[in-house]
C-alpha cells in the first residue's frame, strides 16, 4: 500500500550501495556517535578550561570518538576497497585523541599542551573523515572541490588550536612551554589538578 522506501533502503541510498543488516546497524550507531563528537567536541573546545563543562563534554567526546572508531573499523572491514582510507583516518583520530586524553588523565608532564594538541587534532581528523566521505553528497558543499574536504578542517582548526595554545603562552617556545606546563598551571589560577 505504501511506496515509501524501508529503512534498509534509506541506509543503502546514504551509502550509495546495498548494505547488510550488520552494516546498517553499525552505521546508525556510527552516525549517533559522530554527531555526539561534533557537538561535544566543539563545546569542550569553546568552554573555559576548568572543572565542569570542559571535562564533562570532553569525556563524552572521547568515548564518542571510541564509538566512531569501532563502528568505522567494522564498516571499513566490510567495504575495504572503498573505505580503507577511512579506517586510516579513524585510527589516527582515535590514536591522537587517546594520547590527548591520557596526557590529561595520567598527568603527564606538559599535559596541558599535549592534551590540547591531541584532542584538537583528533577533532580535525574526525571532521576531515566526515567531509571527505559525506561532503560530495551534501547540498552546497558538493560544489566545492574535493581537495577542500581534505584540507578544510585543518585550515580552519589549526589556527584555532595555535591561538588557543598561544593564549596559554605555551607555543612561542614549545620546549620551554612543555617544561613549564606544571609551573604555569600552578600559578595561573587554573583549576586543573
Ligand atoms: C574519524 C572519523 C570518521 C570515520 C573514520 C568515519 C568512517 C566512516 C565509514 C567507514 C563509513 C562507511 C562508508 C561507506 O562504506 O560508504 C562512514 C559512513 C558515514 N559516516 Fe562516518 N566516519 C567518521 C566521522 C563521522 C562523523 C563525525 C559523522 C557525522 C557527524 C559521520 C557520519 C557518517 C554518515 C552519515 C555515513 C553514511 C554515508 C556514507 O557512507 O558515505 N561520520 N563513516
Tell me what the structure shows.
It is built from seven helices and no strands. It is mainly alpha-helical and 193 residues long. Helix 2 (21-46) runs antiparallel to helix 3. It starts with 6 loop residues before the first helix and ends in a 6-residue tail after the last helix. It has one domain (17-169). Bound molecules: protoporphyrin IX containing FE.
Q: What form results from the Cα inertia axes?
A: globular
> What value does the average pLDDT take?
88
- Total count of helical runs of at least 4 residues: 7
Rg = 19 Å
Distance between the termini: 63 Å
Proportion of strand residues: under 5%
Helix-residue proportion: over 70%
Tally of DSSP β-strands: 0
Largest sheet: none
Structural class: mainly alpha
Hetero groups in this structure are:
protoporphyrin IX containing FE
- Low-confidence regions: 182-191
- The succession of helices and strands, N to C, reads HHHHHHH
Give the SSE layout:
Layout: H1 7-15, H2 21-46, H3 53-78, H4 80-105, H5 111-134, H6 146-167, H7 174-187
Helix pairs in contact: 2-3, 2-5, 3-4, 4-5, 5-6, 5-7
Please supply descriptive tags for the structure shown above.
193 residues; 7 helices; binds protoporphyrin IX containing FE
Q: Quick gist of this model?
A:
It contains seven helices and no strands.
